[in-house]
Amino acid sequence: FENPKSASINVAHRIANIIRKKQAENTFAVLGLATGVTPIAVYNELVRLHKEEGLSFKNVITFNLDEYYPMLPNASQSYVTFMNENLFDHIDIEKENIHIPDGTLPLEDIPDFCLNYEKKIAELGGLDIQILGIGRTGHIGFNEPGSAPNSGTRLVTLDDLTRRDAAKDFGGKSFVPTKAITMGIGTIFKAKEIILMAWSRKKASIIKKAVEGKISGKVPATYLQLSNNVEFILDQPAASEL
Ligand code: GLP
Q1: For the chain, what are the domain ranges?
Q2: What distance in angstroms lies between residue 38's CA and the mean position of ligand 1's atoms?
Q3: pTM score, two decimals?
């Protein structure tokens, strides 16, 4: 795409089409959502479709990819706050249909929580669509280098580069949590459609590795080369090294 705006509008309209199709079938749309700067314009367009074109989210169930650990939901850096501010506060989604990994759990409760997260997605028939950004380590969600292709939702340790990139949001790297709860590569793979978005020159070299590089756990996004249901939606600068 020529620019992130036109690309984001395209992605938002595809999500809206899934929601409308499921409404016509009287069933739920199950969406896998992402955080970061990359999907913000997608969320803006979904909010616009709700406010100006009457798109309803009453039949939408969402699962977010990840959350820092530990993290209080009302902290300004939490992905709960991000999703509320950028999407959920502005649409008619039912609160009980929103799922975001819980950054407040005691450590010993995390494995059960993660199994349950997988189970809920599976019981709904899987994710109809999963949107993704990409980190400079090649992470998707918070699946850092070393993640296994069949990994499920779990507690992970964040890469140093990821923590450096997040430092601006936390007022310094030392304040960035060292861990996160993330859906696994295997969880993402089960989605019926996967859309990875990347904008700007900053993402060009990791996009080249993800699309054309050797498939390896060193760059987790390379595993997407193994899926038939994945699309990379890029602006021209992000695609410039392909
Ligand atoms: C974080 C998120 C990822 C996101 C990445 C890139 O690490 N956990 O899901 O893709 O950042 O963020 P941005 O879109 O701000 O470049």
Answers
A1: 4-234
A2: 7
A3: 0.98
